[in-house]
Amino acid sequence: MSSLKPTAGERLFDGVNMAVLVMLSLMFLIPFVAVLSTSFISAEESMRRGAFVLIPEKLDFTAYDLLLNRGPLIFNAYKVTIFKVVVGTFLNLLFTATLAYGLSRKQLPGRNGLVLIIFLTMIFHGGLIPTYMLIDNLSIKDTLWALIIPGLVSAWNLFILRNFFMSLPEELEESAIIDGASPAVILWKIVVPLSMPAIATIGLFYAVHHWNDWFGASIYINEQSKLPIQVVMRNILLSGVTQNETQLEFVHDPPPAATLKSAIIIVSTLPILFVYPFIQRYFVKGVMVGSIKG
Prior knowledge:
There is one protein chain. 66% of the residues lie in helices and 2% in strands. By secondary structure, the protein is mostly helical. The chain has a two-stranded antiparallel ribbon. Helix 4 (73-104) packs across helix 7. The longest helix has 32 residues, at 73-104. The radius of gyration is 25 Å and the shape is flat.
């Protein structure tokens, strides 16, 4: 049987959809291309053509030379950031999944009270000064753990994962209990594999937070060698210098401010953009996990 040909109305509808999608794609893509192009313009071209250009006349790598070839500071900052993202996200998921699984079990004594206490932390918190005093008294100030431990469990992500766990069929757990499985075995061998879309989504939220976070490091970290990339880039942008443990290197012929800002955006954004495609399929499946009724 031959397939039916699309009608004129269907072709028009498809054409309008395609045009709208192309326009939306350009709206998202052109600003990024403009930032990328601006990071390569020279001071002379910036004076002639303005702050932002879409296609540079000549590629100028002065801004990237300033950021990447001025000693080990940038690469040390990347090491700190990667450690923070990898170890921090792993510990976030470990503690969040374990706590969410416990709170999702109806037989847990005092479950409603614990849920209420955790919910209150979303509304009320101690504030910056008590948090700083706590970090100092725990003797983790000026260590990388000060960037991970304070945000070890996000109450919002905890409730999203808890609701997902509550939506799983109870028969799976009951059959595992009959077979002699312990709660830990049930969690890591049954619940976690079935919850990979939700866990990947929560992990993406945690990883992006760790990558973009600069405020905690600016407060708790004093040693230059322990600063993450976002703080280092911010310091370069504000002061116009690169700093390492021994000296300040002043730039005698700095690039335009817009070029330096654009290069900072590219250097601090590209790595997380390269990681996203590998977990996109999990993110698409799990992006609606918060709407699941538990």
